[in-house]
Amino acid sequence: METLDIVILMDIVIGVYFLYAGITGKGNLYINNRHPKEIREDAKKLLRVITLILGIIFFVSGIFEAFRLFSQGILMLVFIIACVVVLVIYFIIFRIKFGEYMR
Fold it and tell me: Which terminus of the chain, N or C, has fewer Cβ atoms within 10 Å?
C-alpha cells in the first residue's frame, strides 16, 4: 500500500468519525471539563456543528482523492484551506459567544 493510499484512508476514517461524533454528540471530542458549567451545553452544540462540517470535508476529500476525480495537488490545497477556515470561524464564534466565561 502506498503512503498516499494510507493518507486517503485516514481522511475517510477521520471524516466518518467526525460525522459520527457530530450526529450523536458522543466521543472523545466532547470530553472537556475546562469549560464552566454554564456554557458546556452551548459549547457542545457549537462543536457538534463544527465536527459535522469537518466530517463532510474530510470524507469528501478522501472520496475525491480515492477516485482521483480532480487534480490531487489542487484538491488537497482546497480541502486544507477549507479546514483552516472552518476552524478559524469556530474559534472566532467561540470567543465572541463565550469569551467572558473563559477569562
Answer: C
